[in-house]
Amino acid sequence: MEKTRAVSAQDFVEYGIAFRRPQSPSMDLMRRRWQSQREQPISDLDDPFDVWPPGRIRLFFSHTAVHRELVGSVATALERWPFACFVAHEEIEPSLAWQEVIESALSTCHALVAFVTDDFRTSNWCDQELGWALGRGRVVIPVRLTLDPHGFAGSIQAVPSSLETAAGVTAEKIASALATAVFRGTRPGSELLLDPLTDAIIDQFAASPSFDLTRRRFEFLRRIPRAMWTPERRLRVDAACERNAQIREAGLGDGRPVPEAVRALWE
C-alpha cells in the first residue's frame, strides 16, 4: 500500500495556482457561470420568498442577535429613504425554513450592511454572510459599532457609529455612504446599482409627504450624476414638482424654491 504523504503548505500554493489555471472546459464553464451571477442585475422579480417590497434598494443587515433591537430601529429609520432592509430575526416567518430565506435574501439583495461589534467575528453566520456578499460582488457597507471591520472588509471605509448613536443618525450615515459608494464608483458592484438607486431616489422624492422630507430627499437627489438624468427621468421629476404641493411649494435653506433647484441639477 502506498504511504500517504503529509500535506505541506507548498501543496496548497501549487493547488491554488493549478486551480486558477483554465485546465478544463468544465472549470471554464464554472468560472463563466460565477462571473455571470456577479454581473447580473437584480430585478423585483428575483424574490422567491417575497421578503422585499418592490421599487426599493434591498439592504441585507448582517448583525449578531444581541443587537437585533438596535439594528431593527436603524432599519425602520431607513424606510424614509428608498431602502428596504432585511433583518433576519424579524423578517423570517416561523413556518419558513430560515436558512433558505437567509440564502435567498443574500442572493437577491443589492447591498449588505454589516454592523460590526465585538461578537461579530465569533458569530456562526455574520462572517459567512459578509463573505457571501463580497464574493458575489455586492456593495458592502460596514458600520463600526464597537469594532473595526476585519478580513477582506477591513479595506472598506466603515461608517462611524456606536451602540449609543441614535438610530436615525446611523440610518442617514448608511444612506449617505451607499449613495457615495454607488455614484462615485468606489465599491465593487456599484455599477449594478447606478440605475436602481437613481430610480429609487427619484420615486421617493416624488412621493415626499412633507416639506421636511422634500428637503431631506433633495439632498440625495442632488447626488445623482448629471449623466444619469435621462429625458424620461427629467419628465418624472418635473411632473412631481407640478403635482406634489409638498415639493412645488417647498424651499431650501438658501431660499431657492425646490423646483428651481431640482431643474438646475441637469440644466
Average per-residue pLDDT, rounded, comes to: 83
The helicity comes to: 40-55%
- From the 3D coordinates, which CATH architecture of the largest domain would you assign? 3-Layer(aba) Sandwich
What class do helices, strands and sheet pairing give? alpha/beta
Structural key phrases:
267 residues, 12 helices, 2 domains, Rossmann fold
What can you tell me about this protein's structure?
This protein has 12 helices and 5 strands. The chain has helices spanning about 10-20, 25-40, 70-80, 90, 100-110, 125-135, 165-185, 195-205, 210-220, 230-245, 245-250, 260-265, and strands at about 55-60, 85, 110-115, 140-145, 160. A 5-stranded parallel β-sheet has the order 2-1-3-4-5, with helices on both faces. Helix 3 (about 70-80) links the parallel strand 1 and strand 2. The longest helix is centred in the middle third of the chain and has 17 residues, at about 165-185. The termini are far apart. The model is unreliable at about 1-35 (pLDDT under 50).
What secondary-structure arrangement, pairings included, does this model have?
Elements (H helix, E strand, L loop, with lengths): L8 H12 L4 H15 L17 E6 L5 H11 L4 E5 H4 L6 H11 L2 E6 L9 H10 L3 E6 L14 E2 L6 H17 L10 H13 L4 H11 L9 H13 L1 H4 L9 H6 L4
Parallel strand pairs: 1-2, 1-3, 3-4, 4-5
Helix pairs in contact: 3-7, 8-9, 8-10
Quick structural summary:
The protein contains twelve helices and five strands. With 267 residues, the protein is α/β, with parallel strands linked by helices.
